[in-house]
DNA sequence: TTGTAAGCGTTATCAT
DNA sequence: ATGATAACGCTTACAA
């Protein structure tokens, strides 16, 4: 029979159905009405030829859009190890998916300049520079930054870091704590804001060190601090995962939480493998994701999009107690 | 002074540099040599006009490729809650990124038929049907299936489920266990294989129930089984996360692991928040990801790609002991 | 090494 | 409701 024939195109379908190219196009796009009988003929011809719908690549060029939104999250395995990041991602994906947009993961190092992106979400808390930034700006790709640097031209989604951190600090102060230490993130806007909030109440809070939101990382970080700790009675962390690591390491070293040591987190995610409820600052992760995605949609549509600042709430759990 | 001028194209650059369109193209693609002086002129013109490189959409259409590979992982937050999935994803992303390909997340429900995908990875263990499958086949999109159904036309990446499961079962048998129960995954190829391996040794192993790889889920699943358990002395799980959940729930109910109950997992991932090392079946997650990505590259290149079956290894930890 | 020209497969505009 | 036609911006034979 026939050799390796090329895939049928819309033109083939149109010809086979005896209609014009534009009518065939409208049959599939539905952008303008097409009579029922014509549609029948076109679809029949398509089925017969094995035409699987308009070529996305061609449509993309014509429309100037790819339907793909990039999301920069740094190293995948570390970024997504934190449930907070996943909750956010879920919300983003939900909104973008409903709009027919796909979500493309951008590692920090890769060269994504050649990929067709309609917009990019920058969600790498703890980084202040980004190789791809200049390129994206040059290409006029809308950029939505989550808790990152307030780069020119980008839309900015953030939460009330300082307010939440200060509320937590006040809670500890009210419990009688005076000697407080903190585990930090890498130098970044959220970290600076949160530390400022902490120092609003405890100006001399000691910094134990910085690490990612990773149980093992925080355990090794605080390991010796718990031995030769000075008079520290509470440790404030920048994520619930960090806080869980501190709790576990404290117990390993014979300290009871919260009796001997109060521990606080940030985020408000579930930690079912911990047998206590963390005192933490709950951030609206789903709202943050939705707001981010909505900002992306707005920017893609060319609308004026304003920055978003979301509130947080202190949640007192079982990991903090009187000093 | 000019109004909202449209973005410059390669043709503008070529004209401004006084060279032909093809020469300008070659300057950027490097696909054929261009004299140094010519390149200079082109790049200078590009810089002057603010040309940010060839339009990816146009190149995609011309080349018939988008540079985007889809990966179907089901619900994002649940899929990535398991560190095993992340390790795999990392390896995939590493190889594809090096090849200049982007990775697009495909939720199960969304309609991704309109997205330009060069290939798709199906990595949803525990699902046997997929709405998008027929469409991808119709569009001739290469499909690489990881531990999923052996769909016609797809390349198949898998591990030695049954062998590993049987080795684990023999380990338990050698420890004197005779009354074994198991926590399963949703009905699927891996689940069937692993259960077969278990029953090679314990034909009458009891099924406690199925759940995802989620600590909270498994805890509630096994909660009452640990109370009114018959003579069960060991529980075999289908992931280390499941196993961790069983350990925690067992302890919560006053059972010591491994003295009163042996618990085994699958995967071989780190569980730093558990104070014992799980006995488990270690699968080569990075290899699996690399093999998957390599298969994708091969399929995109139109090569003949063979299926891959990777070995696993029993690792005896502290969560199993004599019955 | 550089230029000419032919598409890639659509969608959108404008008539009819 | 349908048809003719012009882009969309680039890459790549092929020619010179």
UniProtKB/TrEMBL annotation, chains A, B:
SUPFAM superfamilies referenced in this protein's UniProt entry, alphabetically: lambda repressor-like DNA-binding domains, Periplasmic binding protein-like I
InterPro entries: HTH_LacI, LacI/GalR-like_sensor, Lambda_DNA-bd_dom_sf, Peripla_BP_I
HTH lacI-type domain mapped to chain residues: 8-63
Keyword Transcription regulation found: yes
Gene3D superfamilies xrefs: 3.40.50.2300, lambda repressor-like DNA-binding domains (1.10.260.40)
Domain of life: Bacteria
Pfam families recorded: LacI (PF00356), Peripla_BP_3 (PF13377)
Alphabetized UniProt keyword annotations: DNA-binding, Transcription, Transcription regulation
Any coiled-coil regions, as ranges: none
Protein name per its UniProtKB record: Substrate-binding domain-containing protein
Organism, as annotated: Nocardioides furvisabuli
């Amino acid at each position: 029979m026939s050799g390796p024939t090329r895939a049928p195109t819309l033109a083939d379908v149109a010809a086979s159905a005896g209609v014009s190219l534009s009518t065939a196009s409208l049959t599939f796009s539905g952008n303008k009405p097409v009579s029922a009988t014509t549609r029948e003929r076109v679809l029949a011809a398509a089925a017969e030829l094995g035409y699987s719908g308009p070529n996305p690549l061609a449509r993309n060029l014509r429309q100037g859009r790819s339907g793909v939104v990039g999301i920069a999250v740094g190293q995948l395995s570390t970024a997504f190890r934190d449930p907070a990041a996943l909750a956010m991602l879920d919300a983003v994906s939900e909104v973008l998916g409903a709009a027919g947009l796909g979500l493309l993961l951008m590692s920090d190092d890769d060269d994504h300049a050649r990929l067709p992106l309609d917009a990019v979400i920058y969600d790498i808390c703890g980084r202040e520079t980004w190789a791809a930034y200049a390129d994206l700006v040059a290409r006029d790709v809308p950029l939505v930054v989550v808790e990152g640097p307030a780069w020119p031209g980008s839309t900015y989604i953030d939460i009330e870091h300082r307010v939440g951190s200060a509320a937590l600090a006040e809670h500890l102060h009210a419990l009688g704590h005076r000697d407080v230490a903190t585990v930090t993130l890498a130098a970044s806007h959220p970290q600076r804001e949160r530390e400022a909030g902490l120092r609003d109440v405890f100006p001399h809070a000691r910094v134990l060190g910085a690490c990612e939101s990773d149980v093992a990382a925080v355990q090794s970080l605080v390991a010796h601090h718990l031995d030769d700790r000075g008079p520290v009675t509470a440790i404030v962390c920048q994520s619930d995962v960090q806080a869980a690591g501190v709790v576990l390491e404290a117990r390993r070293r014979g300290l009871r939480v919260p009796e001997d040591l109060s521990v606080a987190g940030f985020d408000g995610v579930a930690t079912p493998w911990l047998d206590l409820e963390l005192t933490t600052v709950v951030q609206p992760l789903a709202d943050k994701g939705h707001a981010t995605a909505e900002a992306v949609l707005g920017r893609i549509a060319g609308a004026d999009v304003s920055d978003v600042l979301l509130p947080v709430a202190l949640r007192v759990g079982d990991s903090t107690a009187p000093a």
